[in-house]
């Protein structure tokens, strides 16, 4: 929805910045949702060489422990709106989203947390920090950057809300920041909808 989009004033890796103190350990469900998200991007042909920021994005503005800045904030909202106001827009775009998942998301994303190399996917991925990148395969000429938030879970743990800032290495029109709703069925997470926050370029018709 157009009303949910915010101008992209600045989106980059802030190299040389060190992550601030991280809090909380991510659950296995959160890592499973990250895996489902990356697999969605890979299957859709949107990404091929995933690089994942090793700290989560938050609601903070004027700073970001994973180096991502969009319009002066860390991607989850614009500087002119509160976290609750942004999440109200997300709820409007995703009416089936349980309110308990929204509450859990808002609480978890006040501070950044470390992402460990525990994402359960078969494909190769590389974790990176704002000041360090190693282990990049030599044949990865174009890299796709993922900036994940913490994952908000509903009380039944069968719905998940996650923000993903994505920078494509091959097509700028695929770059943007969105909230993703995932639902768990028979032990597997699948994407059910999205809510846009920002987009780097105008969308292309496919």
Structure description:
The chain is of the alpha+beta class. The protein has three helices and nine strands, in the order E-H-E-E-H-H-E-E-E-E-E-E. Strands 2, 4, 5, 6, 7, 8 and 9 form a seven-stranded mixed β-sheet that branches. The chain has a two-stranded antiparallel sheet with strand order 1-3. The radius of gyration is 16 Å and the shape is globular. The relative contact order is 0.24.
Question: What is the element layout, followed by pairings?
Answer:
Layout: E1 11-13, H1 28-43, E2 50-53, E3 68-70, H2 83-93, H3 99-108, E4 126-128, E5 144-148, E6 152-153, E7 159-167, E8 176-185, E9 188-199
Parallel strand pairs: 2-4, 2-5
Antiparallel strand pairs: 1-3, 5-7, 6-7, 7-8, 8-9
The shape, in one word, is globular
Mean pLDDT: 87
Residues in helices, as a percent range: 10-25%
Largest sheet: 7 strands, mixed
Sheet/helix structural class: alpha+beta
Number of strands: 9
What's the tally of helices? 3
Distance between the termini: 18 Å
Rounded Rg: 16 Å
Q: Uncertain runs with pLDDT below 50, 5 residues or more?
A: 1-22
| Series of secondary-structure elements, N-terminal to C-terminal | EHEEHHEEEEEE
Bin the strand percentage. Answer: 15-25%
């Amino acid at each position: 929805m157009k009303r949910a989009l915010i101008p992209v004033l600045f989106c980059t890796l802030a190299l040389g910045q060190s992550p601030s103190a991280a809090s909380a350990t991510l659950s296995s469900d959160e890592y499973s949702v990250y895996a489902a998200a990356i697999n969605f991007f890979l299957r859709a042909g949107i990404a091929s060489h995933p690089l994942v920021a090793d700290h989560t994005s938050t609601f903070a503005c004027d700073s970001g422990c994973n180096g991502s800045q969009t319009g002066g904030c860390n991607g989850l909202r614009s500087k002119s709106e509160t976290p609750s106001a942004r999440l109200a827009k997300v709820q409007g775009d995703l009416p089936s989203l349980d309110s308990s998942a929204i509450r859990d998301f808002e609480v978890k994303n006040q501070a950044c947390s470390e992402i460990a190399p525990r994402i359960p996917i078969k494909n190769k991925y590389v974790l990176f920090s704002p000041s360090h990148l190693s282990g990049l395969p030599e044949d990865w000429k174009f890299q796709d950057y993922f900036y994940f938030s913490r994952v908000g879970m509903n009380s039944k743990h069968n719905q998940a809300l996650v923000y993903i800032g994505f920078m494509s290495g091959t097509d700028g029109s695929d770059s943007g920041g969105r909230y993703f709703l995932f639902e768990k069925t028979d032990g597997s997470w699948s994407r059910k909808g999205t809510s846009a926050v920002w987009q780097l370029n105008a969308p292309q018709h496919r």
